[in-house]
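Hi, here's the filled form for the chain we discussed.

Project: internal
Contact: R.S.
Residues: 87
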Amino acid sequence: MLDELERSILEKLTFEEHFHHLMEEVNASRPVLADILKIFLVKEMVQAFYQDEETGKVLPTAFCDTDNLQDYQFRRTRKGTEALYGS
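And the returned structure, exactly as it came back:
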């Protein structure tokens, strides 16, 4: 069961959203947002993306440095959508 903040975060992640933008959108503190995103990553409810410095393209990554979440963008996965809206 999702709480109000978790639901709000997942709702915002239809498309890739940068950590800082998401933090402003849901009005959450950095540590709180980081903790929720870490849980969502472990549960495969969100996917992490990074911006390739050479091409500028935003690409999915299987590995995410959870100490530096500000360097990533996030998007809801199918599991995250199912948790948000039911299966």
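Let me know if anything looks off before we file it.
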